[in-house]
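Researcher: Here's the sequence for the chain we discussed earlier.
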Amino acid sequence: MKTYQKTAVDGPEELELAVPEHVQVAMAEITGNVQEGLLALAVGAGLQVMGALMDADVTALAGPKGRHDPQRVAVRHGTERGSVTLGGRRVPVQRPRVRAADGSGELPVAAYEVFSSTELLGRLAMEKMLAGLSTRRYAPAGLEPVGEQVGGQASSTSKSAVSRRFVAQTETALAELLSADLSGLDLVAFMVDGAHFAESCCVVALGITLDGTKVPLSLVEGSTENATLVTELIVNLRERGLDVTRPVLAVLDGSKALRRAVLDVFDAPVLARCQLHKLRNVRDKLPQRLRPTVERRMRDAYHAPSALEAEALLTTLARELDKTHPSAAASLREGLPETLTVLRLGVPPTLARTLRSTNAIESMISICREHAGNVTRWRDGQMALRWCAAGMVEAGKQFRRVNGHLHLPALRDALQRDVTNNLGPTCHDELVNVA
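Model: Thanks. This is the structure I predict for it:
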């Protein structure tokens, strides 16, 4: 190709597609597709319609063919081989060319620019692979049937081509997740946890807004779930505009690193420990015969009418375990007030089901792991970040508002009162007798 053919004139940011009112389809050319099904027939007709749209764009730029127009701004410049995206593949077509009348360069044909975009290929590759389709099976199983004639000329379906598109798309997803503006988020609850992919640990963050929307916030990669890593993640959230001055309920799994980071960065965090993690921790330190009984008593305590009564019930249980299973008793006492934070704040039961545990963020992590289930070789931490970010984006699409979201404004008021009054979770002035 000559140098002048490569020169393009800057056009408008959004090309306007010239759409003719009527398009004629040559049925004789697509009769052979009838035997391959309706979709193949539609593809044949669609390619003809695309050709008509490109011709209409050329006419809009250069005027009707065969009619001299001294005022025209463009001239026809023949055709050349090109390709468009169709059913997860690239299909060869002859594309028209148009050059500026003053010879300054080539003008884009709007219809071809739209149909030749590879962005759709990347999105399709990411959707298929996150759904569990491997690159080896992409060509036979991940492509839409378009007919033997069109399919035989297709390209960009090899394992390497699909893999390159997936890497590019997940890099985009990661970059968008890490750069999203958070200044408009009004968080009421915040959760952070770690997800392991081979030797990499991705610490992920999830927020719950005042209207009950669950928002994947960010992630960071390291080798362990340490305070430095988590602090880096939360500081990044602050730098991206997240308001850390408002009171927020931080629901954690009991990790000291997570707790330290939240206290260091947020101005007014109210800490809550996951009750399910506490149940598992205590249960694992008991013999099999005692586990159902202790677990039932702990669950009953967590559903007590008040935090004061719940603390009395759990303290009594810990004293009983001191004699025979001191490690279980110590585990029960450790962080006990924070396991009752949701109850102390007076959160209604429908909303408490979401906030008394870290199930919301663990559900997001589970989706990430499920999408990455086919990966057998983790090359590096960047690969773990890409897969985890793609899974978080997909999880965000599946999220619904939390149960009891109408009570979140009341929770915000309770958090504000808690911070203002500086209530300690263990400060109780009345006694409760537990039989």
